């Protein structure tokens, strides 16, 4: 089973993902962008480059996803593991659709979803850590172009579109709560997901 954690920068995904490793010690914990491949390194260069072309950046993130799928996610699922990924395809649908909002693409989110549909493996469930853009930008330190409140407001609206279109896949958690309460809510949600599976 593939469970993903999604949310704005600073929503607390990584904090939760690290804490879950103590609870679900048999699960495979992974993340996007990947942190152990040259594709991930290329993505990180694009994140740090204020002049990076948004369409080229989409394809770098998507290349990293293709490598992540073939090297980590599909083999782990084939062995029957629970896979928990800190960010996954919804990050592209939300972030790159916002970056490409004023591009020549008529419907950026649909375009990005179409690219993924041809080869990707959708998550079974997605835990969405919901936080307002101002809190997200403040917590993340607004150190890169993706961490600005105005941009994150667009990203958040895109996440809402995704949740509206597939409400059964998403579990929304209020991520403005203290960290221990967020973790407790995620653990409860995950236990219910695994029970129902
Ligand atoms: N629920 C929370 N309340 C307040 N601060 C938090 C909470 N969760 C995480 N933080 C802090 O916010 C910052 C970003 O958290 P992080 O887990 O890295 O978020 P993300 O991976 O979603 O960007 C860190 O300094 C972390 O300690
Ligand atoms: C996976 C992914 C991340 N991103 C962005 C979100 C973050 O600003 C940045 C790095 O992701 P990440 O390292 O997960 O940052 P954080 O822990 O702060 O949430 O890349 C995209 O724009 N598209 C994607 O497909």
From TrEMBL:
Key words of the record: ATP-binding, Kinase, Nucleotide biosynthesis, Nucleotide-binding, Transferase
GO molecular function, one term: dTMP kinase activity
EC number: 2.7.4.9
GO cellular component: cytoplasm
PANTHER family: THYMIDYLATE KINASE, UMP-CMP KINASE 2, MITOCHONDRIAL
Matches recorded under NCBIfam families: DTMP_kinase (TIGR00041)
Name this protein carries in UniProt: Probable thymidylate kinase
UniProt organism field: Haloferax mucosum ATCC BAA-1512
């Amino acid at each position: 089973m593939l469970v993903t954690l999604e949310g704005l920068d600073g929503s607390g995904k990584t904090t939760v993902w690290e804490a879950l490793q103590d609870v679900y010690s048999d699960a495979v914990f992974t993340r996007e962008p990947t942190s152990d491949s040259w594709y991930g390194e290329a993505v990180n260069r694009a994140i740090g480059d204020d002049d990076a072309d948004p369409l080229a950046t989409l394809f770098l993130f998507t290349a990293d996803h293709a490598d992540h799928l073939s090297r980590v996610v599909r083999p782990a699922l084939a062995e029957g593991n629970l896979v928990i990924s800190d960010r996954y395809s919804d990050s592209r649908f939300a972030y790159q659709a916002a970056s490409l909002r004023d591009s020549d693409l008529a419907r950026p989110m649909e375009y990005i979803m179409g690219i993924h549909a041809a080869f990707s493996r959708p998550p079974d469930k997605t835990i969405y850590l919901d936080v307002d853009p101002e809190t997200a930008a403040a917590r993340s330190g607004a150190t890169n172009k993706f961490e600005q409140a105005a941009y994150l407001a667009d990203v958040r609206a895109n996440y809402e579109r995704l949740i509206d279109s597939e409400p059964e896949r998403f579990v929304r958690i209020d991520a403005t709560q203290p960290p221990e309460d967020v973790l407790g809510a995620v653990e409860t949600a995950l236990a219910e997901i695994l029970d129902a599976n």
